[in-house]
Amino acid sequence: MPRFYIASEQDIMRGATSDEYFFRALDILRKEKKDRTQVLAEVTTHALPNGWPWGVMCGVEETVRLLEGKPIDLWSLPEGSLFTPKTASGIPTPVMTVEGPYGAFCLFETPMLGFLCQASGIATKAARVRRLAGEKRIISFGIRRMHPGVAPMIERSVYIGGLDDVTTPLGAKRLGLHPVGTMPHALTIVMGGPREAFEAMHKHLEKKIPRIALVDTYYDEKIEAIIATEVIPGLAGVRLDTHSTRRGNFASIVREVRWELDIRGHKDAKIYVSGGISEEKMPELFEAGVDGFGIGTSLSNAPTIDFAFDIVEMEGSPVAKRGKFSGRKRLMRCIEHGCYEVDVRTCPGCGGEVEPAMVQYLKNGKLVRRLPKAVEIRKRVLDEMKRAHFVG
């Protein structure tokens, strides 16, 4: 038996992580000689979590790889595209379409939605944090809160959403990055105190690694920050990871630490904060002088986007279950403002030029478009947050 409760790549590709009713449906369709019925299905969502006005499309590469080799055509918003749950006229925005014999892909609806829903939710949350943080550094700290089997997916999603750094060797390697991190509280405890830990860290870390001291293990944050200035000549920064039960007014603590660093000649030393950091808490910490954030659970445990996958056309005729909009839709996007609408020649909002929003990834199962690297997808997210008018 496997040691860990995790699906292998082979398990996913053979449908072992799919819902049983798809197997039963496929068996019935085969016996009725209906499994080759040509259908067009689309991915949509009626609303985004927490009233978010926009989302980030993520998980496309994994979905393409899942369906590659099957006799289908797959079109999608490019990964990293910002989208609204509905078009300007209120039609649910189709973010991906799959066309082909239903029996060729019905077993893969479950993992397909799993790839898209969770990754898009995490990437969207990361993009919201990135937009709020401006140019300040944001590091992903959320891996320890989630199953390690999905750690690479989480780190890819937060990076695509705009975070600067990840912390695991595996996640960083797949992204073409170097993992970051200096010291845990355990180092201070095992070494016998902050002074001893800071001395050892400065002595043994590679010279290229910035010296960032964790300053809240035993004493007041200000006291441990002062100790760090005494021990580490080239102090790059300090990190405050104070537990909420000991935090008090966190912004005031940051201001005190900033003062003590500056008055001791360490004006270039950065202040990073972590531990329960959320969107709501960030603005007051900006004002207090925080230079960067380690954000964990609120990102890795971001709400999933509730995508659905529905047949909207069968053998060339429009069909749909209740609550869905039937028929093939040509999704267009305003070139200037980034808004979406279906079956239009000009933008209904500004009258400007529009272009097809989706691109084709699979044609009869063959990959017909290069899958971009994560750094390229991340750039798309950052660029679209600047241009799309619905971002605000």
Structure description:
This protein is α+β, with helices and mostly antiparallel strands and 392 residues long. The protein folds into 2 domains: 166 residues, nicotinate phosphoribosyltransferase (Alpha-Beta Barrel), CATH 3.20.140; 120 residues, Aldolase class I (TIM Barrel, Alpha-Beta Barrel). 36% of the residues lie in helices and 17% in strands. It is built from 15 helices and 17 strands. It has a 7-stranded antiparallel beta sheet. Strands 6-10-9-8-7 form a 5-stranded parallel beta sheet. The chain is elongated and about 75 Å long. The mean pLDDT is 95.
Topology-level CATH name of the largest domain: nicotinate phosphoribosyltransferase
Tell me what portion of residues adopts beta-strand conformation. 15-25%
The secondary-structure class comes to alpha+beta
Radius of gyration, in angstroms, nearest whole number: 24 Å
Number of domain modules: 2
Note the quaternary state here: single chain
The stretches of 5 or more residues where confidence is low (pLDDT under 50) are none
Mean pLDDT: 95
Task: Output the number of helix runs.
Answer: 15
Please give the order of strands in the largest beta sheet: 12-11-1-5-3-16-17
Main sheet summary: 7 strands, antiparallel
- The CATH architecture designation of the largest domain is Alpha-Beta Barrel
Please provide the count of β strands.
17
Summarize the amount of helix as a percent range: 25-40%
Distance between the termini: 52 Å
Principal-axis shape equals elongated
The CATH superfamily of the largest domain is nicotinate phosphoribosyltransferase
Q: Report the CATH C-level class of the largest domain.
A: Alpha Beta
